[in-house]
Amino acid sequence: NAPLAELDPEIAAVLEGELARQRDTLEMIASENFVPRAVLQAQGSVLTNKYAEGYPGRRYYGGCEQVDIAENLAIARAKDLFGADHVNVQPHSGAQANAAVLHALINAGDKILGLELAHGGHLTHGMKINFSGKLYDVAAYGVDPETHRIEMDEVRKKALEHRPDVIIAGWSAYPRQLDFAAFREVADEVGAKLWVDMAHFAGLVAAGLHPSPVPHADVVSSTVHKTIGGPRSGFILSKEEYAKKIDSAVFPGQQGGPLMHVIAAKAVAFKVAATDGFKDRQERTVRGAKIIAERLSQPDVAGAGVSVLTGGTDVHLVLVDLRNSALDGQQAEDLLHDAGITVNRNAVPFDPRPPRVTSGLRIGTPALATRGFGDAEFTEVADIIATALRDGASADVEGLSARVAKLTADFPLYPGLAQ
Ligand code: PLP
């Protein structure tokens, strides 16, 4: 029972190094967040020792009385939070939740219609070498070449052309809200089921800042670790009529034993998500993204060929368009990294550069909002990013790093925590 630092100093050093990295940089990857310490505690607990195949009250292993309580709490809290008929909290990840959704709704060879990967869709929505592209017959809708928005006329046209069995609404990189009622209409018109993947914007839905897909979709899947800010994992909401199919698609369809330590941590995250503090954090998240979009749309930055896709944002992220900039996505990501800001390069729709380089950046505000940032701090971050992207190769990286260091010092992360 030696402590980690004694038993495995190399891994202990990784944990320490990562805590320092998270503390000393500005985390702006749109899919990341900082979990509360209570989530770290639940996830790093003895529940990791327990096998619990099955569902609460119907397990294939003995000794499940404590983990049943945890899973029932996670289910009840998610139901309340999203107003869903049925919840499955066992998916290990977002991708596994999505595999279970398709497994439950259709058969191999059936047709799915989702957002084009290169336009902001996700791997599990039909990418060629993902299970979704291999098992199902895939068609895709794209964003409008002018507005860069998902236009429902285009979705309807593609649906009428391809007659899919499932229509997927959801994205990994898109800065606007979706019209779920319009998706429902199109699905009904062609006799398709509607699946919404709200992995990115679930926290905004929980806070009432984004329309809820739950009344419109047959099934809704999500991750817990993006805007919600819980443990890395997934969950599925559905109408009662799909409850049994979803449960058996998750277990035994896709998974064996559930990760009970993670499920307990999900319960904690859902409890947090029902608080006023959570709502305030989501509001700061969206306002922060709007502040960044606005600053990156100013003439000095536009003059350097930098712009923001769709001209702004309604959610927790901004997509920067570098197609007319001297910087490509890789160079811009590296430049911001050198200044202490972590973002990811991202292909923009109709990107002329190769996928490993790209002409875009995806910049998200959830982690910094969790750190406590408000309008003043996001204004400062926006100016640091704008200055770096405007000045490119001649940017004053040292000066920008000093501004980043002031922000990280003013908003300490996990104060008192030692790994
Ligand atoms: N769905 C969407 C829309 C996502 O953006 C992601 C993550 O990037 C996932 C699903 C997959 O989640 P995970 O990485 O937990 O498998």
TrEMBL record:
Reported EC number(s) for this entry are 2.1.2.1
Where in or outside the cell it occurs: the entry states: Cytoplasm
Give, as one word, the top-level EC class: transferase
Write out the residues that bind (6S)-5,6,7,8-tetrahydrofolate. L117, G121, H122, L123, E240
- GO-annotated biological processes: glycine biosynthetic process from serine; methylation; tetrahydrofolate interconversion
Q: Where is the Serine hydroxymethyltransferase-like domain?
A: 5-385
Its GO CC terms are:
cytosol
Q: Which PROSITE patterns match?
A: SHMT
- What coarse category fits the chief subcellular location reported for this protein? cytoplasm
Q: Name one Pfam family in it.
A: SHMT
Tell me which residues are marked as the site Plays an important role in substrate specificity. Answer: H225
Q: Which InterPro entries match?
A: PyrdxlP-dep_Trfase (IPR015424), PyrdxlP-dep_Trfase_major (IPR015421), PyrdxlP-dep_Trfase_small (IPR015422), Ser_HO-MeTrfase (IPR001085), Ser_HO-MeTrfase-like (IPR049943), Ser_HO-MeTrfase_PLP_BS (IPR019798), SHMT-like_dom (IPR039429)
For this UniProt record, give its keywords in alphabetical order, as a comma-separated list.
Answer: Amino-acid biosynthesis, Cytoplasm, Methyltransferase, One-carbon metabolism, Pyridoxal phosphate, Transferase
The UniProt entry's sequence similarity note says:
Belongs to the SHMT family.
**Listed name of the protein:** Serine hydroxymethyltransferase
The organism is Isoptericola variabilis (strain 225)
